[in-house]
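Lecture 7 notes. Example A: sequence first, then its structure tokens.
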Amino acid sequence: MKLHSQFLRLHGYYGSEASVQITLDEMAETLECTHRNALNIIRKMEAEGWIEWHSQRGRGKRSELKFRVDPEEIAAISMIKAIDRHEIKKVMDDIKEYTDSAKLPGRLQGWLMRYFGHHTQVNEDKEQIDILRLPLRQQIHTMDPLAMNLLAESFVASHIYDGLLTRNETGEVTPHLAHDYDVSKDRMTWVFYLRKDVYFHHGKTLTADDIVYTFERLRLHQEPLLYNFIVQSIASVTALSSTCVRFTLNTPNEHFLPFLCTSRAVIVPSGLDEAAEHDEIRFSGTGPFKVTEFNSSMCILEAFSAYFISRPHLDVVEIIQIPWSLPEQNTEAQDGANPLFHVLLGTSKIQQNQSQYSSHTLVRKLLTCNTRKEGPLKDPKVRKHVFQCIKYEEPVGAAIHPEALQPDDVDGTYLVLITIPQYRPDAMNIKERLERFGYEVRVKVFMPKDFKGPIRMESDLILFSLLMDWDESLRRHDLYLTLSSHVECSVEDNLLNGLNQILLVRSADERLRMLQQIEEQLIEQDHLYVLYDRPFQTSFLPSVRGIRPGSQGWVDLRYLWFPPDVGQIESI
């Protein structure tokens, strides 16, 4: 395994040329070893047929180094060997640093299709261990509900933590960590009654102090948060007893109960921020799975036997971050392998021998204008023209016909479009479309944390998305509050007045209808443009049982199970 890593490192430094002149000193420095070890490594690589080495005697003399294999081939071999040795993180890091993942050979792609999915092992006690391995392109940066920005992070966290309330299969708000609650007539005081004998993964019993700690932590957080408008409506949180907690709001807010179902409001143990970096409390929740390993490339979850509802059917879920896309084609016929279980890929393609699960969730891609900034988009006619240019149906690269839209005095009009890394392709498509009509567009990409900040006020166009799931009303409300900060004052006043009225509406359906009306008004005024809607779909083997939707459209892993004859039988 070490030799593979050393080859990737060597190729990363010198592989850009067919042949390179190098001294033994330089070789040793690159490999971070002694001269003697460098010679041993060279001999081993020659024996494997990976390199040619034409040595020149004498200290300081340059020898000739030629590479005979591609680094992607060595990466494939290295990864295959890494699994049995549980060294996948190191191999992933080497692959990302020293190879072009876009050129990974089909051999590795096919092997990955076999590796991911459902597998069964039998341990020394003859017990069957069900393992589900999932690929994930997004890197999971954190498990802290306070810091999560990505849907993938929220998906994983939803299996580690619980909220006071949850949603059932139809999206209805139901009790969870709290078995019941009361509310005052003015809808400003809420009292929740906690279940007894609920345990965190590190063994501590859940009490009202943990609820107080969780929400005080949210309230005192200084950086922008999703649903911050609800957090700031909480005046106080008080433990009335070990199993009873009272929330007092500043004003009535009918989004409050749905908010308690979200991943932002899940409960963490008190003392979390004071814990050491490697303390077991760091990723401790009360959820159906507990974290046993977490790093930049891998997250391993194990079933929590003491879960207060019921133990998951799966024993282990391994979520592995891979820096490339997996092939869409079905490799089952070629390799006799399990096709990939598309829980995290969001694919919309149905493969042979697969079924498809369509959730209630849509992803809507949106573009909005910053009309607080002095610039061309203050003019509603220019905004309308910009959106018409984007809407123009001819494919990018096609000739513009005489009868097509033509810009009036827009040649060289400079626009700054900002977005996050995941949406760069859409941003570049918008740039190309607008530049066909005479605009000059600069695309700037920011990480989600920075994207939420004041950088928006320096842009002209902002590209983002709206997840239309069970939390759609909350997301829309949060979105329109954000939009209010970069529209002109008259539009802002109307927007905020409408949003404040929605907070008092008890009917969830009516709140959503009113929020959709706000979207229609923003579109009509050319402050907002809908690029497209995309359903969130998941392909799976027909033999997979227990398919249930999670809050964000992904499958809820706690209910999944596989009949005994599914998967590859392995021995531990």
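Example B, a different protein, same format:
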Amino acid sequence: MASEIQPFTAPDDGPEDQAVHHSINEGDIATPASFSPVASPSGPPITSRRLSEITGSLSSAESLDLVPLPSGVPEPIEICIQRSSSKLSGGSGSLLAVPRKASDPSRSSAASTLATPDQESQPIPNPTFADDARSIQRPRSSSIADRIEAVMRESHSRFYDGTKSPEKWLLAVLLAPLFAVIPFWIPGLPDADETSTTAMVWHFVTLFVMDFAGSTMYPFVPGALLTVPLFRTPWGQFLMVPYLSAGIVTLGGIIPYLIFDVFPVPMLAVIQAAAIIPLVFVYLYFFMNPAVLQERSHRADFFVSVGILVGVTVVYGVIYPLGGALFNQLEGIPQAFMALAFCVVRGIYEKVGTRLLSKRAQDGYPLFIFSSCFCHETFIAILMNRVSAWYVFAVFIVYDLSENLYHVLELRRLQYKTECSETARQLVTVSLLMEFAEMIAPLQYTICSFAIYYFNKRPNDNFALVEDKAFWQGIFFNCLDVVGEVCVFMFLTRVIKKVTGLRSVKALGRLCVIYGVAFLAFQITILGFFLQIQYAPGGNDLTFRFNWLKDGAQWVGGLCWTTPEDPTACDL
């Protein structure tokens, strides 16, 4: 009872013992704020008193705030801890002040719990469901959404500790894929019509090396969204690439050649794509970490990444190449409509993908956006030397520029609308990754074009029979595309800096630190695949003529063969 409270004299503690302490987890996982209560000269610490000593019996319906404190007991000290706001938004009303997740403190990084002295005196607004851009996502043991939050903060976090250089990773994403496709540049390899034993060994060894590039994304991309290892051993992901390369060459190349005694094997890329699916399942069955499928959140993350791989394979690995074969046979206005069809297919694919990801897995946005943009831009760069008129090129360039300018205008419109902070965060992430992919894709293919054209163009179906004028037209269009995208990117960085305070190049570098392995895997696979379907020994004749299967066929270059019935089949 209140009348039974005994007097208490506080010990003479030093000032340092009366300070408020904030507990921060050593592992950079945020923990609820704790403090040592200030000793009172007239009573014990408030938090050390039992409720029954102060109020007696208190009914569950009675509010604790309505219970008067006994005489001599000081008023409770209110401890106000304000979440640190990013330097991006300090003093500028930024739309990118990322709210802290309230329901699961273990998901937030320590960067979101640090408070500056000026902020400690400000009260915390209770976070609501609508305020948190990540609240609509499923629960997870460790949120990948913190990775995007880390990009938008100047301080370190559990996903970005400052030990890796953003500039070096940005440079790696830009240049490393070029070294992965060197086998397509090497001159002196056997011609497509050579079928001696030595030549066949070289053919299959070359295809094995090329399939190394085409298999890269399968072990590395599914693990990008997981917070647990995808494989049981650290070397599982590295051993999967040579396993897949050897498997698809054997099932899709050597066995069909031995059975039908035909080379090149018709539609080798399609056969290998069908062969790689069971090979992936077999490898995952024996080497995948069981925890991936045991927990619901990990299982969902795994299937999201698998869905991205399936979407890329179907849309850009099947639909686009078939459309490209038709595009090469058209001219003028019909070709312009075909160019518009590519843009429409991409728009529908991205619209459906973003709608699904926004409901179930927003953390898949970076991988989805980057993969879609890079695939589209790389394939369009391949078509540039087959463009028949300037307005066909204009269809491609206007679509890309208008899409990015739309993001810029939306950011400026949302600059003073704080209620649209979630939309602004999504726009910044999407626009940066989209513009980055649209810059580097035509640049990388242009560099590959020079190497292939001047060192080993005869096996390449895109360059074997092309005239110098058409080749330089493609180079000019691709360079013009790169210049236009660079100008839009510079304008975009200025707008993002003004609206959010975010330095775009640094943000891209941090994104490459966090997602760099998956980005590289996508680039190497897509660039290698598109070059392989142009490679003559691959037999990927999308016109479905397969003239080399006819008697008396003579190889001219690329996938073009003449026959006694059609001696002018390769005339331009």
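Note on Example B: The radius of gyration is 30 Å. The longest strand covers residues 554-557.
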